[in-house]
């Protein structure tokens, strides 16, 4: 035909178009750094979350390194200094045995925070696995898992916690020792009753994300279900899970303090914040400082974690523009 251009003899009309080159690693790192900068920019706009993060860092650093600086044994008994108010020698005062409360609260803070973090890990891992399986499944599997989740949600948690700890703590103490036995028992019980909200949240995220266009494209390219979950759905669902995890830390610390205050937590020689409160309840009229300091630490820790959770919720929400 006149005016047309002849095709090159070497042209291959049946060959597919070449794939675009993969971005260099530097570009991927730059995108990751930009995402972290966006998250930090959104987070720092939340002033209470920044204040909560600062207070929580101070508490964690204090309980982590404080016993190295304040080298007073937690079980040193001095009856001549019993029920002394805060002073230079005892900044937080002493208890009915003359034991230094600052040393005991620094030591017990490690256990209380460790209980909260470990129980949070258990609840997040178990809840994410169950929620992911339910969200990717259809039919009977999803129904059974959600029925089991609703069943655990309907159980009265505090009475059940008390019954389980009352019946099993002595046998576990004999196997792994008193301190580690109670720690494992409390962490397992608290974490075992905190995974249900995470499972429901993860399932909802999976049900929403699996219908998105980017996942349809991954399925069209032949991605397996495992690859869809690990590479596409789970990274996009981690924002709400992280926020739920921060809330679980605060809930676990409160649960441990409640159990210890009721006398079913750690033994008297392990001074967690809840246990110190339990020991102080009979001396509120003559030594109010004894309950004031552990109560304040529990209050500040839980409040700071909740504010951090609020800040992370805003920072990890892609629909929010700050």
What is the helix/strand order?
Answer: HHHHHHHHHHH
Which percent range fits the helix content?
55-70%
Task: Give the N-to-C terminal Cα separation.
Answer: 60 Å
Shape estimate: globular
User: Quick one: CATH class?
Assistant: Mainly Alpha
Low-confidence stretches at least 5 residues in length (pLDDT < 50)?
Answer: 4-13
Attribute tags:
322 residues; mainly alpha; MetI-like fold; 11 helices; globular
Short description:
The protein contains eleven helices and no strands.
Structural overview:
It contains 11 helices and no strands. Mean pLDDT is 80; it is low at 4-13. The radius of gyration is 27 Å and the shape is globular. Helices cover 70% and strands 0% of the residues. Helix 1 (25-44) crosses helix 11 (288-315) and helix 3 (101-136) runs parallel beside helix 7. It is mainly α. It has helices at residues 25-44, 47-69, 101-136, 140-154, 157-176, 178-192, 195-209, 213-220, 225-261, 273-280, 288-315. The protein has one domain (46-70, 92-315): MetI-like fold (Orthogonal Bundle). The N and C termini lie far apart (60 Å).
Please write out the topology:
Layout: H1 25-44, H2 47-69, H3 101-136, H4 140-154, H5 157-176, H6 178-192, H7 195-209, H8 213-220, H9 225-261, H10 273-280, H11 288-315
């Amino acid at each position: 035909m006149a005016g047309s251009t002849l095709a090159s003899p070497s042209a291959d009309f049946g060959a597919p178009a070449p794939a675009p080159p993969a971005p260099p690693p530097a570009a991927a790192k730059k995108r990751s750094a930009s995402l972290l900068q966006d998250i930090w920019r959104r987070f720092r706009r939340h002033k209470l979350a920044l204040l909560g993060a600062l207070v929580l860092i101070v508490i964690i650093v204090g309980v982590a390194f404080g016993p190295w600086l304040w080298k007073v044994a937690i079980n040193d008994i001095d009856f001549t200094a019993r029920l002394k108010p805060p002073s230079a020698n005892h900044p937080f005062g002493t208890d009915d045995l003359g034991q230094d409360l600052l040393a005991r609260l620094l030591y017990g803070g490690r256990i209380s925070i460790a209980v909260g973090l470990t129980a949070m890990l258990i609840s997040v891992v178990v809840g994410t696995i169950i929620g992911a399986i339910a969200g990717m499944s259809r039919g009977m599997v999803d129904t059974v898992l959600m029925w089991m989740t609703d069943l655990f949600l309907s159980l009265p948690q505090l009475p059940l916690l008390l019954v389980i700890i009352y019946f099993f703590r002595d046998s576990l103490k004999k196997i792994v020792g008193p301190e580690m036995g109670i720690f494992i028992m409390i962490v397992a019980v608290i974490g075992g009753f905190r995974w249900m909200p995470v499972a429901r949240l993860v399932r909802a995220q999976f049900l929403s994300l699996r219908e998105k266009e980017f996942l349809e494209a991954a399925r069209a390219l032949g991605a397996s279900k495992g690859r869809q979950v690990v590479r596409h759905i789970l990274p996009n669902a981690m924002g709400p899970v992280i926020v739920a995890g921060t809330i679980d830390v605060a809930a676990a610390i409160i649960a441990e303090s409640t159990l210890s205050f009721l006398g079913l937590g750690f033994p008297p020689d392990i001074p967690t914040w809840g246990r110190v409160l339990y020991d102080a309840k009979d001396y509120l009229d003559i030594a109010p400082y004894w309950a004031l300091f552990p109560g304040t630490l529990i209050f500040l820790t839980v409040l700071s974690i909740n504010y951090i959770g609020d800040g992370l919720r805003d920072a990890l929400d892609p629909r929010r523009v700050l």
